[in-house]
């Protein structure tokens, strides 16, 4: 998914570079794929669940940087390798050669940022998306909800919340997802993953649903 360009000062922290060219870098978050990345990967995976943001949630991202600059800009992130690879190939086929004709790096940065913002604006226009500060983050949360729980895209996410529940002596920090027909909880703690969901009965009120879900988690 293309995102409004945002500057990143530490491009290498907690990320592994998989592809690079003079202007763009494709990175994978430590702890995702290829065996999980050992202890560092487990710690990063736990951190990603506890400290959520659209950029941290996505295991893949693309950065832009001019050769003489110390500042990186995140321009895309994705929940799957297929999604981020499609963005990478688009950049290589449509932008990389064009950038070589610019003489001023500020002009290159302005061009790249404007191009990405134009793609986002066109997508929002074609899909009747309301542009606001929460759009990217909510879209990313929706993508993760569909992927974690195997839900179809027709199962629309209503809202999501940071929360935890106690199991034994250890609190399970994670995220509660409320969709049209389901209440779901996901947690990840030092390599131990949990994904649980409950079908919402339209005849039940909120208190009944929460009580049922809590009883379900305690029984696990």
Describe the protein's architecture and organization.
It is a single chain. By secondary structure, the chain is α+β, with helices and mostly antiparallel strands. Strands 1-5-4-3-2 form a 5-stranded antiparallel sheet. A 4-stranded antiparallel sheet has the order 6-7-8-9, with helices on both faces. A hairpin with a 2-residue loop joins strand 7 and strand 8. The protein is elongated.
Q: Characteristics of this structure?
A:
GRAM; 9 strands; elongated; TBC1 domain member 9; alpha+beta; PH-domain like; five-stranded antiparallel sheet; 220 residues; PH-like_dom_sf; four-stranded antiparallel sheet
How are the secondary structure elements laid out?
Elements: E1 2-8, E2 15-20, E3 24-29, H1 38-50, H2 54-57, E4 60-64, E5 72-78, H3 81-94, H4 96-99, H5 105-126, H6 135-149, E6 157-167, E7 170-179, E8 182-189, E9 192-199, H7 206-218
Antiparallel strand pairs: 1-5, 2-3, 3-4, 4-5, 6-7, 7-8, 8-9
Organism: Xenoophorus captivus
Domain GRAM: 143-213
Pfam family, one: GRAM
Distance between the termini: 35 Å
Number of domains: 2
Describe the sheet with the most strands: 5 strands, antiparallel
Approximate shape: elongated
**H/E order of the elements?**
EEEHHEEHHHHEEEEH
Count of helical segments? 7
The overall pLDDT average reads 76
By helix and strand content, what is the structural category?
Answer: alpha+beta
Tell me the radius of gyration.
Answer: 20 Å
- What share of the residues does DSSP label as strand, in percent? 25-35%
Neighbour order of strands in the largest sheet: 1-5-4-3-2
Low-confidence stretches: none
Helix percent band: 25-40%
Number of strands: 9
């Amino acid at each position: 998914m293309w995102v409004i360009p945002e500057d990143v000062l530490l491009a290498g922290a907690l990320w592994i570079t998989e592809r690079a060219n003079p202007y763009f870098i494709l990175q994978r978050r430590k702890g995702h794929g290829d065996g999980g990345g050992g202890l560092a990967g487990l710690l990063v995976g736990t951190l990603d669940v506890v400290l959520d943001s659209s950029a941290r949630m996505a295991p893949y991202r693309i950065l832009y940087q001019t050769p003489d600059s110390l500042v990186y800009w995140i321009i895309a992130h994705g929940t799957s390798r297929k999604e981020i690879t499609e963005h990478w190939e688009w950049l290589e086929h449509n932008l990389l050669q064009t950038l070589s004709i610019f003489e001023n790096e500020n002009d290159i940065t302005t061009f790249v940022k404007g191009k990405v913002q134009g793609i986002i604006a066109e997508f929002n226009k074609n899909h009747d998306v309301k542009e606001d500060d929460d759009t990217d983050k909510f879209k990313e949360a929706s993508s993760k909800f569909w992927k974690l729980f195997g839900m179809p895209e027709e199962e629309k996410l209503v809202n999501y919340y940071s929360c935890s529940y106690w199991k034994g002596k250890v609190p399970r920090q994670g995220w509660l997802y409320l969709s049209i027909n389901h209440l779901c909880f996901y947690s990840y703690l030092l390599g131990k993953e949990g994904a649980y969901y409950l079908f919402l009965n339209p005849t039940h009120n909120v208190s009944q649903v929460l009580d049922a879900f809590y009883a379900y988690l305690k029984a696990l």
